[in-house]
Amino acid sequence: MLFNSLDFFLFLAPALALFAFAPQRVRWLWLLVASGIFYGWQQPSHLLWLAAVTAVTWACGAVLARMEADGARRAWLAAGLVLAIGSLVVAKFYDFTASELALPRLGLAAPAGFSFYVFSAASYLVDAYRRRTPTGAHAGEVALYLAWFPKILAGPIERAPGFLARVREAVRPTPEQIVLGSQLIGWGLVKKVAIADNLAPLVDRTFGMVAYASPVDLLASVYFFAFQIYCDFSGYTDMAIGVSLLFGLPLAENFRRPYFSRSTAEFWAQRWHISLGRWFRDYLYIPLGGSRAGRVRQYLNIMLVFVASGLWHAGLGYGVGWTFLVWGALNGGYQWAGLATKPLWDRAARAFPRIAASRAWVVLRIVFTFHLILLAWVFFRAKSLHDAWVVLERIGSRVAELPHLLAQYPYGADHKLGFALIAALLVVEAVDERKPVLARLAARPTAWRWAACYAALAVLLVLGRWQASEFIYMQF
């Protein structure tokens, strides 16, 4: 069931109504039932995968909560992590590895959202081992934590302590949460069906025939994909947070205008897929030693995290291949370069403080960072390393001619619409960077707020593509 489908809204209305009339003590149970209906709507067999992960997580977590011996607790934690993450690794990579080694294939296909709730399960087990989860969490609470329907398909990746604490409180939305949730749902829909889905056709067409596409088409598609994946994923996140707020359950922020980052470190640590970045930081980077074990070990840990992130992203969306490994390693290399050159930039900023603080320098840093990320997105989107190289080679070999080619290119309606949508998005994001747009609206008269709602509705009706296309990240 997709957030951009009629089925979802026909499901959401009675789910909210029954939630409102349910007694407070059993509201968590209705939320769990609703989550099961949502997740199993099209493929009931997906519930078996979810049930298996839930059973392992709850059972191991319950043992960890009762057990005192450190050695036995470590063994149970290891067993739970091997079962949970091992199932993810097998489901994602066995058939790919088998094809590379000429071994028999099993035809495994993990269900949508599997990567997300397996990582949630892993964080639950680690937090249970560290005794950070609420005491006495029963199977139903653990199941709801993993299955909560707004986040199950593509996050955010919540932490169990905060989520379960909110579930145990009086689950009741405030009027402010209902208003904010509705606004986020509307904005998320605009991002997905009006922007991302209008950029997708040209991107899909060009990346489907990179050997025959012109340099201008390839260049436009690379830029379009950067905004397609951002609007697709952040649109889902906005809607997930908004829907959850309607039930009185806030979710973690996952995006913070990432293309305004001044460095790739800021992009990954503070602005893009924030919940995943924090997951890797807390459950992989820091346990590996982080920056505490010396410079060489720090560099190795950073690369391991980004390679693991690349492997995690491999999935149904764009297949499983070497491109994701290169994408992760390239982003890890960016972090290496940033760490290595940081002392130099710090000295330059002290020597030329006015330049370092100038708006022109900030804009230059943002543009440079964006294009580093743009280069990495080519490997993320391409079907193979060969296709990625073709894209880069065909654009790079004609760099000197690009101004002329861009001026002479016969742009079609899809190009013009795409450029206009990206420009409009950047204006909104720039305004939002200074002060959140929704906060600005809240301070305006009622007429302004209704005008904004009607404008969003008009955009959805006129520009929206309502073919219920899947969100990209729910396939990873």
Briefly, what is this?
This protein has helices at residues 6-21, 27-39, 46-66, 70-101, 114-129, 139-147, 149-152, 160-168, 175-207, 215-246, 264-271, 274-285, 295-313, 322-351, 353-356, 359-381, 385-396, 402-408, 413-434, 437-442, 446-463.
Could you please describe the fold and organization of this structure?
By secondary structure, this protein is mainly alpha-helical. It contains 21 helices and no strands. It has helices at residues 6-21, 27-39, 46-66, 70-101, 114-129, 139-147, 149-152, 160-168, 175-207, 215-246, 264-271, 274-285, 295-313, 322-351, 353-356, 359-381, 385-396, 402-408, 413-434, 437-442, 446-463. The longest helix is centred in the middle third of the chain and has 33 residues, at 175-207. The chain is globular and about 70 Å long.
What key phrases describe this protein's structure?
mainly alpha
